[in-house]
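Researcher: First entry.
Model:
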Amino acid sequence: MTNSTFSIVITLLFLIVRCPAVHGQLDTLLIPSFSTPVDTLNENSTPSKEGIPQNILEKKTKIHSPKKAAIMSAILPGLGQAYNNRYWKIPIIYGGFALSGYYLSDNLKNIEKYKNAYIADIDGDPNTINDSGYNTDDLNTLIDQYTQWRDLSYIAIGIIYVLNILDASVDAHLLDFNVSEDISMNISPTWMPLNNRVPGLTLTVKL
């Protein structure tokens, strides 16, 4: 695995984690039922900013558990994404594993090949022949290079595995993050609390 290929694999997996998952956020919260008897809305109920009693809002439960999503992806990569209904991410994750695994296998084969050629060149046995076309110095260089690429392949597999877990956890958090569609801005006149009270403007943004 070359440095450029390693960078491509990591970049693709990083984009999975950074991909926004807010388009389905509002549908993932249970809407509180207003069939609650009127006597439960007593004077002890604390109104929320939306005008809904706090004791009703507290009954909302999350559908998606970030911890559960992370554990599922740790046990089997892609399982947390399936739990979050992000099925399109699963082929990308396994594509990253497959690409890293392919380069890992290729690097291991080349290390073995050039090590055998090196041994054949220095063992003094006429029955073993170095047919690689490289001398011992070149073989040492090739072994070191493929060993470095082998290590990068292992690192890539580890990073993909960790990103797979982080992505499942972050996605589950975002699915339960309520973004209000009622975003408004209000500008109203006010008096500034200075020595000589002067007129000003108050800017209120409702999210």
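Researcher: Second entry.
Model:
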Amino acid sequence: MDILTIELTAALVNNPATPSARTKVEITLENSTGRLSVEDCEGSPRSVHRFTVRDANDLGCGGVYNFTMEQARSVLAISCSLTNPRILFSPLQPHQLPATLKLGKVPSKDEVINTPGKHITIITEPLHIPESVSMLFGTKLSLDEAQILNVANRLLKARVFDTTNRSLLELNVLESIRRYQEAPMSADGLSCYESLYNAFEKAVNADTDRKDKTFDAAASASTGLTQADIESLRHFNNRVKHALRNKKDFAELKAGESQFAQMALNLKRAADGAILSRI
């Protein structure tokens, strides 16, 4: 089997890293059968994590799909992001982190691996550790191997990098995933929010264009958030995206900014649910 090694950064969706506000995520892997392993590495402003994929075919590198290492890395980053509620994984910081492929032998029959299902466990322990000129925000995260590989397989079957001969619905889903990937590459929290909202909206409206209350109802059904929560996300995105016109707009912007951490977490959950419902 070909072994793939991939480094990704971990961005807290409710607290994007900056040089003066760094993030550190400690990752453990649950439900592991050895198909994936992860090692926490040093990194700034975001922590870096080195994933080892025992069989590169699990991410489409070689085999039927014949993805490049960069495409396989994107599949892993998206899969890890979609299977937890707080973190967005990316290969950027600010340069591209490496991915390497080690060619191996064809596996024997006794190397078949089974992966029983299990839910993710997320343990969050916010830390505020003052340093001389910066703050470190830390959290502990448990990723589920079976869920990551399940989502990766769904992305492979969705042919996420192939835009030829696709229906309008399929193209909209691919565009949603592309915008989702852009979110952790944003320079600040509001830009990240806007990219994540674009991904969420595109996934909800992949089959038809919905507005206002009709959108809220459809989004609620696919994500599990209440229609009131969806409406709040939509209104805040409008304020981030469009110029302020009156006092009501200003009040909505200030209210959203004061609750940004929870709004960002709600949006992450909404975007994850909407995309997963389409693949």
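Model: Note on the second entry: The chain has eight helices and eight strands.
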